[in-house]
Specification:
The complex is a heterodimer of chains A (222) and B (448).
Chain A (H helix, E strand, L loop, with lengths): L1 E5 L3 H13 L3 E5 L2 H10 L4 E4 L8 H10 L6 E5 L4 H10 L3 E4 L4 H15 L7 E3 L2 E4 L4 E4 L2 E3 L3 H12 L4 E3 H8 L10 H13 L4 E4 L3 E4 L6
Parallel strand pairs in A: 1-2, 1-3, 3-4, 4-5
Antiparallel strand pairs in A: 6-7, 7-8, 8-9, 10-12, 11-12
Chain B lengths: L8 H54 L7 E3 L9 E7 L2 E6 L15 E7 L2 E9 L5 E8 H37 L1 H11 L19 H48 L3 H33 L6 E4 H18 L3 E5 L5 E4 L1 H18 L5 E9 L2 E8 L6 H6 L17 H13 L2 E6 L6 E6 L4
Parallel strand pairs in B: 1-3, 8-10
Antiparallel strand pairs in B: 2-3, 2-6, 4-5, 5-6, 7-9, 10-11, 11-13, 12-13
Helix pairs in contact in B: 1-2, 4-5, 5-9, 6-7, 7-9
Classes of the chains: A alpha/beta (222), B alpha+beta (448).
Chain lengths: 222, 448
């Protein structure tokens, strides 16, 4: 899952990025409000962690601008401002969650997963289609009850397809889901990962929509 | 005098007004006494003289040859108060019943008034002689009767006043009570305010004399409000600013816990330590600021700013060397200023420390001291990236940090620098360094 982290404090930003990466997130880190707005408007992030005291553009202004631009990416506000009016203003401006610093990394990761799940209309943490079950928290995938070993990229790709089950995802969208900035994307990376997933989970799961992208159907095709 | 007056305004006013009334009343009584006394004397003396004249005339006509003494009968119960004697050729020929046999007054010039004491009573006596000086007439009047008339007149004018005095006192008390009611209202208003209420005091229909007091109070409340607000904001800001370093420490520690790669774990642990140092530094700065705010007027002495800058630069030099930066000091002559040594040390260290922190490795940092037009000048400039005009404007906002600096400052250094400069009356200027291209901070003492 690729998320945007907007935090101007170097040490905290570094810690959050490294910590969230341990939980399997792909993290893009920006350090000011303008960059955060630009990235959120330009990329389909699964979620964003937004500090409010950002330079160049305040976090709330950034959030308001992003929501005005009809960007629906779930946003978790992570801030030192704990007054009730601040929280209310944050949520009313368009935040999906409001967390006070300091935060436990496990909790932050769980909240982010919950935000992503809800944004995709999934009531439960554990995603499943046919006999394939994916647990985002423990990053375990099972087919017919047996664990299947997947690489990080394969897991992220399957996670993205499961979250958007029934919808076509283009190759570019999938690339954006599984790669953060600075990571080399090979031209046929998505095809390779899909091929591997089909090999490990069966060919009936992921369908190719020729010239468009891939889709994961809720019910197996005949 | 003032010390003896009652403490309450009401008591003071009542006492003063009543004293004034009493004074005027007594003065009026004294004047009345003097006037009535004078008029009464004229009138009664006139009567005495007239009675004597009648007796002289009567004696001359009727009692030419009688040698016996006739005692005139008392006719009215007032009669004992007046007495008369008629002597003919030295013989008492006629007298009132209450008159003695001896002449009431010593013989002397005719037409004389005298006050004499006869048997323990004061008498006003008029003596006169007939034309041939053989008839002597004395007419006397009891002095006490005069006094009683005088007292009667005085009583009749003073009694109503004396009766009115308690009523007047009540009226004065009530009027004063009404008059000072705005003061009592102000007192009640102030007493019933919540301790944290700092809005302007309002008293309905406050008299103009109270306006200066209320204005002064409201100005005071305003000042306290501003002070409290800045205090409150500072505390809130400070608490918030501590959250970020703590969040960073926590995140880095959790990263270290979750890291399997040894090198990465050590990196995270180093970051954790760095976060602790930063939090400690922030706490140190907060304490410096709060200490300074508690001590508004630190003790000032004459000191050599050049020597102080040299010592401080020496203490920061290791940090500059570690970053491969050049730190130079130009202070050829002593620079005398008046200031607090501890605070000025903090000021200089913060300035030089900022220059070291926010300039890249191998940058040049120059500290120069000079005297221009009687004003001591401390320049700290660097070859770092400098600041945009907008950032220079925001510099000194508490916790403001310029964007793009990788150094983890709290933004409190500038608050401290500004505060110390203000305490000393020093002027603070921030500009682009023309010599080194980075930031130039100039501290100038007032001209001596």
């Amino acid at each position: 899952m690729r998320i945007l982290l907007a935090e101007d404090d170097l040490l905290l930003g570094d810690g959050l990025k490294a910590g969230l990466q341990q939980f399997g997130f792909q993290v893009d880190w920006v350090r000011d409000g303008e960059a955060a707005e630009r990235e959120l408007r330009g990329q389909p992030y699964a979620a964003a962690v937004l500090d409010l005291g950002l330079p160049r553009k305040d976090g709330l202004d950034t959030l308001a601008a992003v929501r005005r631009a009809r960007v629906t990416t779930p946003v978790l506000v992570l801030t030192a401002r704990d007054a009730i009016p601040d929280r209310i203003r944050g949520l009313d401006t368009g935040a999906d969650d409001y967390v006070i610093k300091p935060v436990d990394l496990h909790e932050l990761a769980a909240r982010l997963r919950a935000l992503v799940r809800r944004a995709h209309g999934q009531p439960q943490e554990i995603l499943s289609v046919q006999d394939v079950v994916l647990d985002p928290a423990s990053r375990v995938v099972r087919k017919a009850g047996l664990p299947v070993a997947l690489s990080t990229r394969e897991f992220d790709l399957l996670h993205a397809l499961l979250l958007n089950a029934g919808h076509v995802l283009t190759r570019e969208q999938l690339e954006q889901h599984i790669y953060s900035w600075g990571q080399e994307v090979e031209s046929n990376a998505v095809e390779v990962h899909v091929h591997n997933l089909r090999r490990k989970l069966g060919s009936g799961l992921i369908q190719t929509v020729r010239g468009v992208g891939y889709i994961l159907l809720r019910e197996a095709t005949q | 005098m003032t010390r003896r007056l009652p403490r309450s305004l009401q008591g003071r006013l009542v006492l003063l007004v009543l004293s004034a009334v009493l004074g005027v009343w007594l003065a009026a009584a004294a004047l009345t006494w003097r006037d009535v006394n004078h008029e009464l004397e004229e009138l009664l003396d006139g009567h005495l003289a007239q009675a004597a004249a009648l007796l002289v005339v009567q004696q001359a006509q009727e009692l030419q040859d009688d040698d016996q003494t006739i005692d005139a009968p008392p006719l009215h119960h007032y009669a004992p108060r007046v007495a008369f004697q008629v002597f003919h050729e030295g013989q008492l020929v006629l007298r009132s019943a209450n008159a003695p046999e001896a002449p009431m007054s010593s013989p002397g010039k005719s037409g004389r008034f005298a006050t004499v004491n006869i048997d323990g009573n004061d008498w006003r006596v008029f003596a006169t002689y007939g034309a041939e000086r053989d008839v002597q007439v004395y007419v006397g009047e009891h002095m006490r009767s005069r006094m009683s008339i005088l007292w009667a007149v005085l009583r009749s004018t003073m009694w109503p006043m004396a009766l009115a005095l308690p009523l007047l006192a009540l009226a004065v008390w009530w009027s004063v009570f009404r008059g000072v009611s705005p003061l009592r209202r102000l007192g009640r208003t102030l007493a019933s305010r919540r301790p944290d209420a700092l809005d302007a005091v309002k008293v309905d229909a406050a008299p103009s004399e109270m306006q200066p007091v209320m204005d002064a109070l409201n100005v005071l409340f305003g000042r306290i409000g501003v002070l409290l607000e800045s205090e409150r904001r500072f505390t809130a800001d400070a608490a918030h600013e501590l959250r970020t370093p703590i969040a960073a420490i926590r995140a880095q520690a959790q990263v270290a816990l979750g890291e399997t790669d040894d090198l990465m774990r050590r990196l995270a642990l180093q970051n954790t330590l760095q976060g602790c140092d930063r939090a400690a530094h922030l706490v140190e700065q907060l304490l410096t600021l709060s200490r300074m705010e508690a001590d508004a007027a630190p003790s000032m002495t004459e000191l050599d700013l050049a020597a102080l800058a040299k010592r401080t630069a020496a203490s920061v030099a290791p940090a500059a060397l570690a970053r491969n930066q050049t730190l130079e000091l130009h202070a050829p002559d002593p620079v005398r200023v008046r200031g607090n040594e501890a605070l000025l040390t903090v000021l200089v260290r913060n300035l030089v420390d900022n220059a070291v922190r926010y300039s890249p490795p191998s940058a040049r940092i120059r500290v120069a001291l000079s005297v221009e037009g009687g004003s001591a000048i401390l320049d700290v400039e660097d070859s770092g990236p400098g600041m945009s005009d907008g950032d220079i404007k925001r510099l000194g906002d508490r916790f403001f940090r310029a964007l793009g600096s990788d150094e983890s400052g709290s933004g409190l250094g500038w608050s401290i620098i500004r505060r110390i400069a203000a305490v000393h009356g020093f002027e603070l200027q921030v500009a682009r360094s023309s010599a080194l291209g980075g930031l130039l901070v100039r501290v100038a003492s007032p001209q001596s």
